[in-house]
Structures are given as C-alpha cells and as structure tokens.
Amino acid sequence: MNTIQRLLVTILLVGLPMQACSQNILSIGNGSALPGDNVSIDVQITHDDPVLGFSFGAIHNGAVLTPTSLVQGAALTPLNGGTGADYFFEDLAPANGPGVVLACIFTFGGILDSLPPGADQEVAVINYTVSPSATPGSSTAVSPSTALGVPPINIVFTVGGVSVFPSTTAGVASVEVPAPSGLTSTLADICSCSYDFNWTNNASYTGIQVRLLGSLVATLPGSATSTTVILPASTADVCVTGVIGPASSAQTCVDDSCPGYSPPPPPSGLSCSILDTDPVSGCTVDASWTNPGGYSSIDVYVNGILAESIPSNAVAWQGALNLSPDPQDICIEATDACGGVLAQVCCQLTCTAGPIFIRGDCNADSLYNIADVVAALSFLFGGAGPPPCGDACDINDDGAQDISDPVFLLSNLFSSGNFPPAPYPDCGEDPTEPDGIDCSSFPPCP
C-alpha cells in the first residue's frame, strides 16, 4: 500500500466520526475441509444504509489454518460496472497474527459506487489450507479482531463519510473426518444372502456406522474394517461412515444385490439291481444314479426308512434287502446346498429266495443214503410220481433227471465218488437256477 492509499484508508475508515446504527453486523462464516485440503470462509455484512467501504481483521489458529488468498465476495463483483471494488487491500500475514486483514474502498473517483442496504451480503472470501496434521473432528475459530496490523486495522463500515463500528460474529473452520475407503462386497452365503463388506479406515475413529438403504443397521467399534450384511434381491446401497466424537465422515458406499439361490435338479437316472441273494439274510442290492447338481447330503431310504446317509457326491450305493415276496422301494433323497430337500427318486426290487433244499436227499427225509437212490429209481422207472423237490433229485446238477443221478449217488456212497454239488450237505438255493427243474416242497429245510 502506497502513502496516498494509506491516507485514503485512514481518512475513510478510521478518522471519520462514529455513527450509531441499529443493524450493522460483520459476520465470519463457517467452512469445513479434510486435513490437507482447502477451506473457504466467507465474510458477510448486514447494514441499513449504503456502504462505501469497510475494513476488518480476522485471527485464526496458525497450527491448523494457513491463509492462501483473500478475494472479493459475490456482493462486490457487480460494483463499478462489474469490475468490482477499486481498492481491495489484503494482508495474509499482518503483525500481531496469525490472521488476515482487509481494507476495501468501492470507488476512488467520479460517482461513488456503494453497496446498498441489505442483510448477509458476501463481501469477501478467505481461503485457507488445513494442516495435514489437523485432528479430524476438531474445529477452530476464525474470529474478528481489531489487533492486527501496524497501526491496527479497525472493523468499520464507511456510511456516507462516517465510520460505523458494527457488531461482529466469529466463524468456525471444522476439520472433516476422512471417510473409510476401498469398500468391497463379497458373497458369503448364497442361502441367507449374507455378504461380507471390507474397507480401509483412514483415521482413528471412535465408531463405524453401517447403513443399508439409508437405515442404520450396525454401529461398530472404531477399529472395525469389516462387517456382514444380509442384502435384498433388489439392488441396495451399503454405506459405511467413520465417526469421531460428534463428527462424522462422508459416507463410502457400494451397491450390490442378492442373486438368489436356485436349487439343482434331484438325482436322475436311478438304476437298481440285485447282486446276490442269501436264503437267510436276504439280498445284496446295488443302486446307481447321476448327480446333475451339487448337494450337501444324500440319504438312502429303504421302504421309507433311512438306511444310510452317504457322501454328497456319491453316485452309487450298495445295501441289503430283507426277503419278501413283495416289491421293496429304494429311494435316493438329496438335500441342496441351502438345506432344501429335493424330490426323491425311487426304484423297486423284489428280494425272494429260490427253493431251499439239500441236493441228493431225493426222498426229502433229511437223510442221505441208499433210500435216496431207490427214490430216484422209483421216480424214473417205477411210476412213483414226481418227487417233492425235483432239484434235490438232480443229484449231479446237470439240469436233467435221468439214470445218471442215482449212479452219481451210488458212486459217492460206495465208491468214493464226488459229493453232490451245492447245496449240499446244508440247505440252500440252487446256484445254477434256472435249470427247468422245480422244487415245490422240501420239508427238511425251513
């Protein structure tokens, strides 16, 4: 500022008589920014009469704020045909700081332009840089001051050549809370539509708030970096907010939705067969099928009763059936990955034992001797009628009843010949069935 300019400011803003006015206010506004970012604080005036100029000083906490510029506000830019105020002097590092001072005269010569009466008219904007080490969630005052500069700059409006000293209101610069970042979602359980959410904390929070579709669903400790949320089928936003005391960060959000679970088809192509039959214990059976989907378990039911739970990827089963003249059900029941029971697939088998007899006991008296030879000869050549069990008289098990059978028996009894084929000497089934020979009754065997 040169000597003439200082003289004008002194005459206009300091040396004129004081005038009282009921509505003259200089207000410093509020602003907020993250640590390391820039914040703008506006300065507004309220006055009842046209104003020709003004000056003010504002102090701040130098550990938090560093002023970078002081510019004309929106109320000044229309002055002088849109060129703004003729004289706008700012000092970002005045004596007795830290602070800023501003002296402004709207018009130097000719027809003096003035700011008409009004409320909350923005005359200046102070731009600061917030220290990178500023504490998130804290705030610091930006206060009007008459102690800055040499000589100190008054807070004054110039009204019709008279100095008016307005009341003042301080502003606040708030240090914003950095928001969590890197929010991601991962499907954890398709059955419950449960998703895992993870993020990175960018400050030492006292709490983390989690919202689903704008509604608070969880408040977590400040150190938390993950949570689980159940999502709806439609797209929904999940947001996390860092909290430090009463201050909250901006929300960090991600959109996701639950695709829903589609159960797989039940097992298919079930095929069942009897592997062997024991005349006492029953049948060994085999079942096989195809798995068109992934299952959590497979159960095998026999006649509606759980016979065995087998591995979820099994495609075959072997088990037992009791002897019965009636068909028996074998059913495969799969459970899907979400616990849903799928439709059973079933097959039927009949487990019946063939005739039970002792080969060579042709007369069915439970003895093995010459009487059986006589019975065979009587049946073949004596017109005695068929024996009760033709298979017992097929002594050599060749599938025919003829003279060879009593000869085979005589050889065994008296000439150390071979014993009859099975079943011998105990009750049993004919392993060579079907052979065209029947056994309708053999009382010695149960």
Description:
- The protein is mainly beta and 446 residues long.
- It folds into four domains: 173 residues, Immunoglobulin-like (Sandwich); 76 residues, Immunoglobulin-like (Sandwich), CATH 2.60.40; 82 residues, Sandwich (Immunoglobulin-like), CATH 2.60.40; 93 residues, Type 1 dockerin domain (Orthogonal Bundle), CATH 1.10.1330.
- Helices cover 10% and strands 41% of the residues.
- It is built from five helices and 28 strands.
- Strands 2, 4, 6, 7, 9, 10, 11 and 13 form an eight-stranded mixed β-sheet that branches. Strands 5-8-3-1-12 form a five-stranded mixed β-sheet, with no helix packed on it. Strands 16, 17, 19, 20 and 21 form a five-stranded antiparallel β-sheet that branches.
- Strand 16 and strand 17 form a beta hairpin.
- It starts with a helix and ends in a 32-residue tail after the last helix.
- 31% of the residues are buried.
Instruction: Write the CATH architecture name of the largest domain.
Output: Sandwich
Helix content: under 10%
Instruction: Report how far apart the termini are.
Output: 130 Å
Structural class: mainly beta
Radius of gyration: 53 Å
User: Could you describe the largest sheet, including whether it forms a barrel?
Assistant: 8 strands, mixed
Average pLDDT reading? 91
Q: Care to count the β-strands? A: 28
Binned strand content: 35-45%
Q: Tell me the number of structural domains.
A: 4
Described by the principal axes of the CA atoms, the overall outline is rod-shaped
Query: For the record, what CATH class of the largest domain applies?
Result: Mainly Beta
